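U., I forgot to send this yesterday:
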Amino acid sequence: MYSDLDYISKWDSTPDVCSYNFSSSTTFGSLFNAAKTHAINQWSNVGISLNSLSSFDSYADIIIFGGTLDYLNNTIGLSIGDDADGITYFNVSQQYVIMYGAITKVGKVFTDTVSVFIIDNTRNCSSQNYISSTATHELGHALGWMGHAPSGNVMYAYSNSVTILQNPDKLHLYQYYH
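Result:
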């Protein structure tokens, strides 16, 4: 079993992905844009189709936002803890049961825009690996990876420097999308 949860989600069609950076830091802005591209490429290389939009579209299926914790909490109205580097908000509806060999999971389909938030904070703002890892991890949730993987994987529950998807990361969603 790759995930620690008993359900997985997916998109019925190729999701449109765009981004918007609220941070005024030019350093974070450059790292954020590179991390978004890295994350999209990582999941696309697994065979999960994504339509990366070149400009912001509020109707996109997945929107990746960047910003300081203070801005996201106080201006956007989120409630993200001080220890967060990223978080994903979504709605899903139950659809069907799927089998991975002897493992049964409930398959769910996304029903609304998924919002991904990458935090510009002192822990990650100077490290491309850290932001790329966080963006790849959170995009994995936006694509349907519910729960988390064991240590050494991008989808591990805690921030780490792993930026390249490992087999458990890849196979969990690949089996569902193909």
